[in-house]
From TrEMBL:
The gene is si:ch211-201h21.5. Residues 6-311 form the Inosine/uridine-preferring nucleoside hydrolase domain. It holds the Pfam family IU_nuc_hydro. One of its GO terms (molecular function) is hydrolase activity, hydrolyzing N-glycosyl compounds. PANTHER family: SI:CH211-201H21.5 (PTHR46190:SF1), SI:CH211-201H21.5-RELATED (PTHR46190). The lineage of its organism: Eukaryota, Metazoa, Chordata, Craniata, Vertebrata. Belongs to the IUNH family. This is Inosine-uridine preferring nucleoside hydrolase-like. InterPro entries: Inosine/uridine_hydrolase_dom (IPR001910), IUN_hydrolase (IPR052775), Ribo_hydro-like (IPR036452). CDD domains: nuc_hydro_CeIAG (cd02649).
């Protein structure tokens, strides 16, 4: 398989960590950088979380860039899905030197530079609010056409929300940026929505098997999910299960899996999409225009069905890290 150049844009919570680990185990991936954005927690915590994941997987050579701390418009807020720090509030050994390990270059500038240096070669995987991407196209209007492809975890297909009545978390955190990206990015775009992730959930028995593997990455994931309500079968009964039934969902892994292996996605809806900005109830909701009433020229691929067997294999492999450890003499 030909080498794939990748940039990961993340608001690193627990599911982002899982997705990043999946990327680290993809043998054909060359990760040029990881750009950080607010979302699951503050951008400062996101940077530290990414560094922690890379440290656990012994991949600290990958550059990390600090990006947007607030949305384009309005007041910044963070979610509580994964605790205050984004990784379950269980990590005690914080690195006091973390800022020295972050690149001095701003994430948006790094994104523009890397894409300009590798035109039509980079796959960009966006796992958080789309603020960095929106700023990139505002600074360089040609940025999207220099990308090979864009994968997004975010938005919804049916108006089912998880932070508001009608909006998915990543889009709800910065609706204006989601609007800008889905209007201005004309590159091939693939969206793993909230409903796609939840309708292709995995059994909780698989989650137990996944977390109980004997490897540093698996032990790390077991620790950070151990006290997190978002990974509680019981807590989900009054939340996600109401709409989708029981199951384990690692949201960001669905977008990453599609980038790693396109055959994981077995069905997609190709159509224009629109992000609602004005509605008092529907602000941040993604609308699928399947009959093209809006007369938009650009279509995206909204994933709808998943090969959960292949997804399971990618998830299992992602926690068998670090690789290439030399046996002790």
């Amino acid at each position: 398989m030909a080498e794939k150049l990748v940039i990961i844009d993340t608001d690193c919570g627990i599911d982002d960590a899982q997705a990043i680990m999946m990327a680290l185990t993809a043998p054909h991936f060359q990760i040029l950088g990881i750009t950080c954005v607010f979302g699951n927690t503050t951008v400062e915590n996101v940077c530290q979380n990414v560094l922690k994941v890379l440290s656990v997987c012994e991949r600290e050579e990958i550059p990390v860039f600090r990006g947007s701390a607030v949305p384009l418009v309005g007041i910044s807020s963070s979610g509580d899905h994964f605790g205050g720090d984004g990784l379950g509030d269980v990590i005690k050994d914080k690195d006091p030197q973390w800022e020295d390990k972050i690149s001095m270059e701003h994430a948006v500038n790094a994104m523009i530079r890397l894409v300009s240096e590798n035109q039509n070669q980079i796959s960009l995987v966006a796992l958080g609010p789309l603020t960095n991407l929106a700023l990139a196209v505002r600074l360089d209007p040609c940025f999207p056409q220099k990308l090979k492809e864009l994968y997004i975890m975010g938005g919804n297909m049916e108006g089912i929300g998880n932070v508001s009545l009608c909006a998915e978390f990543n889009f709800a955190m910065d609706p204006e940026s989601a609007y800008v990206v889905l209007e201005d990015f004309l590159c091939p775009t693939y969206i793993a929505s909230l409903e796609y992730s939840c309708r292709n959930s995995l059994p909780w028995e698989f989650f137990e098997e996944l977390m109980n593997q004997d490897a540093p990455a698996a032990r790390f994931m077991k620790t950070i999910t151990s006290k997190c309500w978002a990974y509680s079968k019981e807590a989900m009964k009054k939340r996600r299960d109401v709409h989708f039934g029981p199951g384990f969902v690692s949201y960001d892994s669905y977008a990453m899996a599609a980038c790693v292996d396109g055959s994981v996605v077995t069905e997609s809806i190709q159509c224009p999409v629109h992000v609602e900005l004005q509605g008092s109830i529907s602000r941040g909701m993604m609308v699928l225009d399947r009959t093209n009433k809006l007369k938009k020229s650009h279509c995206v691929y909204v994933m709808s069905k998943c090969d959960t067997t292949k997804l399971s294999q990618l998830l299992m492999e992602s926690l068998r890290q670090p690789r290439n450890k030399q046996p002790e003499k």
